[in-house]
Design a protein that fits this description.
alpha/beta; Rossmann fold; Helicase, Ruva Protein, domain 3; 4 domains; 6-stranded mixed sheet; 5-stranded parallel sheet; 20 helices; 47% helix
């Protein structure tokens, strides 16, 4: 195989901005002369006569488009298909057109399946090719610019593990930054699914204890007899099954941070023991006699009304004041106006990648429906829904019809989209379906009586009988 020949053809006219570079791979010199006349006012042209290392070469040279003659090497009409596949795999965002002398539809179909944006058969309609090439370059350029804008918006909205740029979240970020460097105890409050553990991790990451132990314990995840030993540790023989001495979470957090999630579920005896540790800075293992000096920062989280629990005696008031030194209130998702599009974009990216599926997007109508939903499960509920939609939606764009009824029931935008899709609808057909549905429902409620059904629909009996004959009801 001879070495690849690269020939750069450019327009002589000066342009205010650099013209996009198009790589044409063909041996048809007559065709090249025609293309030069059609394309040079609009693009720069690089000509190659082989497929050799084409995919990586075009990526390195930042080529905007490739026009590939898949018959260039030999008489096999399928010879260039693997090259198309490799080009699209390494260059997902550029324009890729193919052409061949073969007139069978199978070649065109395989070329499109291999990643071509369009396929042309010889003799090529050159003006049509030019228009397709320039339109596709423009469209893909706009898509790439929108993608850059989305990525910039995501980066601008990112704070530690949080995604959000709304004013309530900005206040949370400011509060975390203000308190992170101190050793003061923090109470993180918010509904389930709002990201309380993310807030705890952010505080630790920005603190002077960032490189020290970070120990987490969900107080609601273990029964009382186990959580006591998990918190305070135990000596060998302290209880049945304690075959060895082991430190508790408080002891393991020495020098670092202890995060207690769902602290409101601790029983009063455990609250008393925890209060003693916070006051004395010593911990005693179950079955042990010695006290161990410890130094740790406590971060707690709850979605329970601790003030009410303290008032009614279900939570120790003195412990409440110990842990409630600085509260951070996480807003529910329904109050984070503008954050849902950012969160959807983020979850689509990470979960499409994790599940090995092509990148999906959410239509404007579906996004409007998601923004109108109340989200009782907050960000966790939204993430779970996006994960499910990625798997269950077969098409690339998620539309209102893909959303579950619980999301659509409050959405005017979704209702409009279902009533009148973007592609339009059959007015007479829709009216007929509505009339049949109303008539059928009225007859059922009227137990088959046309007179009773007419009363329910507020029409006279004669019209009711006419409509029933019309629709064979």
């Amino acid at each position: 195989m001879p070495p690849a020949q690269n020939v750069l053809l450019t327009s002589q006219a000066s342009a205010p901005t650099p013209l996009p570079t198009v790589c044409i791979v063909t041996l048809d010199e007559e065709f090249l002369e025609i293309l030069q006349t059609e394309l040079l006012p609009w693009v720069q042209i690089v000509v190659r006569d082989t497929y050799e290392d084409l995919a990586r070469w075009t990526r390195k040279k930042q080529v905007a488009a490739v026009l590939l003659d898949i018959d260039t090497q030999g008489d096999d009409p399928y010879a260039g298909l693997p090259v198309l596949t490799e080009l699209r795999r390494l260059n997902k965002n550029f324009t890729l057109l193919s052409m061949s002398r073969a007139h069978t539809r199978s070649v065109e179909k395989q070329a499109l399946n291999s990643g071509a944006d369009a396929h042309f058969r010889n003799p090529v309609d050159v003006p049509e090719l030019r228009n397709t090439l320039l339109d596709t370059i423009r469209r893909r350029s706009e898509e790439a610019e929108r993608e850059r804008s989305r990525q910039q918006a995501l980066e601008a909205s990112r704070f530690q593990d949080f995604i959000g740029a709304s004013e309530p979240m900005r206040l949370v970020y400011d509060a975390i930054q203000q308190i992170a460097a101190s050793n003061i105890n923090v109470l993180i409050r918010g509904e389930s699914g709002t990201g309380k553990e993310l807030a705890a991790r952010a505080i630790v990451a920005l603190s002077r204890r960032a490189n020290k132990p970070y120990i987490r314990l969900n107080c609601a995840a273990l029964p009382e007899n186990l959580i006591e030993s998990e918190l305070f540790g135990s000596e060998r023989g302290a209880f049945t099954g304690a075959t060895e001495s082991r430190p508790g979470h408080i002891e393991m957090a020495d020098g670092g941070t202890l995060f207690l999630d769902e602290i409101a579920t601790l029983t009063l005896p455990l609250q008393t023991k925890l209060l003693r540790v916070l006051e004395d800075h010593h911990v005693q293992r179950l079955g042990g006699r010695s006290l161990r000096k410890i130094d740790f920062r406590l971060i707690c989280a709850t979605n329970e009304p601790l003030e009410e629990m303290a008032r009614t005696g279900r939570f120790r008031e003195d412990l409440y004041y110990r842990i409630h030194v600085i509260p951070i209130q996480l807003p529910p998702l329904r109050e984070r106006i503008g954050d849902i599009p950012l969160l959807c974009e983020y979850f689509l990216q990470i979960h499409c990648t994790a599940n090995g599926v092509p990148q999906k997007r959410i239509s404007a109508d579906a996004l409007a429906a998601l923004e109108e939903h109340r989200w009782p499960g907050n960000v966790r509920e939204l993430e779970n829904l996006i994960q499910r939609l990625i798997i269950t939606t077969r098409h690339q764009e998620i539309v209102p019809a893909d959303l579950p009824p619980r999301v659509l029931e409050r959405s005017l935008a979704a209702s409009e989209a279902l009533l009148l899709p973007d592609g339009g609808t059959d007015f007479d057909g829709q009216v007929r379906q509505l009339e049949v549905a109303l008539l059928t429902t009225a007859l059922r409620r009227g137990e088959g009586s046309k007179t009773a059904a007419a009363r329910l629909l507020n029409v006279d009996v004669q019209k009711m009988k006419y409509l029933c004959r019309k629709y064979s009801l």
